[in-house]
């Protein structure tokens, strides 16, 4: 069994009892915005860089707070590879605008689970259980 784990960071952004999700070009499923850490980056540094690249958002470093860690099957991997996403809340300047590899931004809730990657669906379900989204 393959025990490969992709380590990622994600930003939980809530509005009107929905969570911001993104979809990459050439992908069909949505996921939490964020990405992989670069060498020697802290979670906060990677999150700030990725959100600037993907959604042109400038995060307020002192507002970043941990929400939870989620593990699920990696989207598009047939070998059992899993993804581990450490999710955070943060305040930011600007409005999220898809950039770089992001084709679409959508505000989703628990009724949209079929549109989400495996791990994103786990996160959406937890947000709903915690009473943060519908």
TrEMBL record:
Gene Ontology molecular function: 8-oxo-7,8-dihydrodeoxyguanosine triphosphate pyrophosphatase activity; 8-oxo-7,8-dihydroguanosine triphosphate pyrophosphatase activity; 8-oxo-dGDP phosphatase activity; 8-oxo-GDP phosphatase activity; metal ion binding
GO process annotations (BP): DNA repair; DNA replication
Pfam families: NUDIX (PF00293)
Domain of life: Bacteria
EC numbers for this chain: 3.6.1.55
Root EC class: hydrolase
Record keywords, A-Z: DNA damage, DNA repair, DNA replication, Hydrolase, Magnesium, Metal-binding, Mutator protein
InterPro entries from the UniProt entry: MutT-like (IPR047127), NUDIX_hydrolase-like_dom_sf (IPR015797), NUDIX_hydrolase_CS (IPR020084), NUDIX_hydrolase_dom (IPR000086)
SUPFAM superfamilies, alphabetized: Nudix
Lipoprotein is among the record's keywords: no
Family: Belongs to the Nudix hydrolase family.
Protein name (Swiss-Prot/TrEMBL): 8-oxo-dGTP diphosphatase
Taxonomic source organism: Providencia stuartii
